[in-house]
């Protein structure tokens, strides 16, 4: 039930090309801040994917629609931390999560880009999709206003645990914002499953990058 239909956008060249001795650092500018991201070539999660750029850009330009100030935000599959850093700059209480092997680089990027700034101090935590959720994030204690996910769907076997994780954290009142590059039939199958569980709307499409940005909320019946 798409009323207005998604907006069509381009991913802007928000990164600043640098002649840098370090090939592994990318410089971006969002919300008036220069953000320096260290990528790691060993891990999938440690490269900035187009979905992260799309969501960062969208959050920056739609602050009235999605006001993150003083909101509790959880990012799953945070990767290099770009989206979490942007959410922090926008005033959110951010918890950035990912697999254990990604956390060192994630923590480094987040602390480097948010220290000495007047904002809520972000938290970095381990979260393996579908595992120990009720132990590590008991419902009685943790409630999030926003659940953010970018490029979490690609060729991997953890799609069911990923969906279970989204279902676990999406309570009434939570808004899931998911941006993904659509490459494979499995991506569309995941989208269908998501649509069968949540109210979903495609907010924006970035055709050049094959990225769709979706909003999902719990069906309250």
UniProtKB/TrEMBL annotation:
> Do the record's keywords include Methyltransferase?
yes
Pfam families this protein is in? Methyltransf_16
Q: Which domain of life is it from?
A: Eukaryota
One annotated GO molecular function is:
methyltransferase activity
Alphabetized UniProt keyword annotations: Methyltransferase, S-adenosyl-L-methionine, Transferase
Any one Gene Ontology BP term: methylation
- Protein name, entry field: MT21C methyltransferase
């Amino acid at each position: 039930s798409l009323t207005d239909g998604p907006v069509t956008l381009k991913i802007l060249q928000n990164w600043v090309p640098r002649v840098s001795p370090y090939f592994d650092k990318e410089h971006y500018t969002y919300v008036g801040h220069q953000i320096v991201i260290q990528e790691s070539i060993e891990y999938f999660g440690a490269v900035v994917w187009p979905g992260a750029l799309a969501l960062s850009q969208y959050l920056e330009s739609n602050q009235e629609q999605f006001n993150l100030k003083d909101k509790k935000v959880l990012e799953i599959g945070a990767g290099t931390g770009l989206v979490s850093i942007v959410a922090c700059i926008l005033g959110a209480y951010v918890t950035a999560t990912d697999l254990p092997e990604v956390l060192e680089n994630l923590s480094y990027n987040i602390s480097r880009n948010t220290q000495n700034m007047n904002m809520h101090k972000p938290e970095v935590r381990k979260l393996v999709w579908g595992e120990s959720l009720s132990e590590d994030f008991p419902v009685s204690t943790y409630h999030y206003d926003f659940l953010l996910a970018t490029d979490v769907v690609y060729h991997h076997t953890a799609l069911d645990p990923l969906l279970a994780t989204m279902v676990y954290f999406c309570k009434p009142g939570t808004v899931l914002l998911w941006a993904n590059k659509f490459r494979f039939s499995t991506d569309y199958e995941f989208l269908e499953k998501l649509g069968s569980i949540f109210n979903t709307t495609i907010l924006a499409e970035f055709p050049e990058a094959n990225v769709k940005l979706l909003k999902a909320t719990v069906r309250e019946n």
